[in-house]
Amino acid sequence: MPFLSPLTLTGNLVTLEPLTALHHDDLVAASRDGELWNLWYTSVPRPEEMRAEIERRLRLQTEQSMLPFTVRRSATGVICGMTTFMAADAVNRRVEIGSTWTAAGVHRTGINTESKLLLLTHAFESLNCIAVEFRTHWMNRQSRAAIAGLGAKQDGVLRNHAQSADGALRDTVVFSVIQSEWPTVRKDLRHKLEQGLRHRTDANRAPSV
């Protein structure tokens, strides 16, 4: 059996389904929500680059180094982003969760938290991973805070780790969750999702004024 095989991961808020070329138009629409490609320290594909990005991810899937997903919001069925298992190391049972972006309209809705819970659960409980990595640009403070909020610990900073097309040098911050930490991280993520659901429910019940 391959280390990474396409599958669908289903939660209450989100469904992660195998990426296909048929998702192109919906992903373009999602990427326009917030125009996240304008943040210079991210790598969100522009609409005209989406087809090539899908092809790149699917090519890496055939090489067994990536397992790409489309992020679909369960409540509406609307596609709202992309995420992957990447940098797969079958021998040492390690993966990285990355190449992730979601439409601005679903930020702070629990979509990202549940997506990470689904991916981490599969990594540790089905793939039997010993560690799962997260990496982000040093200047992407929002991403760094979000990764730390998942319960991942910072391993270090790879300075001058990569160079962008415009010549800018990137310092990459590396985080990870290791196997022994997973039960505590899982409990905390479930608690965050329950608290978020309770707050959203209370807000919906509040009388209008």
TrEMBL record:
<keyword id="KW-0808">Transferase</keyword>
<dbReference type="Pfam" id="PF13302">
    <property type="entry name" value="Acetyltransf_3"/>
</dbReference>
<protein>
    <submittedName>
        <fullName>N-acetyltransferase</fullName>
    </submittedName>
</protein>
<dbReference type="InterPro" id="IPR016181">
    <property type="entry name" value="Acyl_CoA_acyltransferase"/>
</dbReference>
<dbReference type="GO" id="GO:0016747">
    <property type="term" value="F:acyltransferase activity, transferring groups other than amino-acyl groups"/>
</dbReference>
<dbReference type="InterPro" id="IPR000182">
    <property type="entry name" value="GNAT_dom"/>
</dbReference>
<feature type="domain" description="N-acetyltransferase">
    <location>
        <begin position="14"/>
        <end position="153"/>
    </location>
</feature>
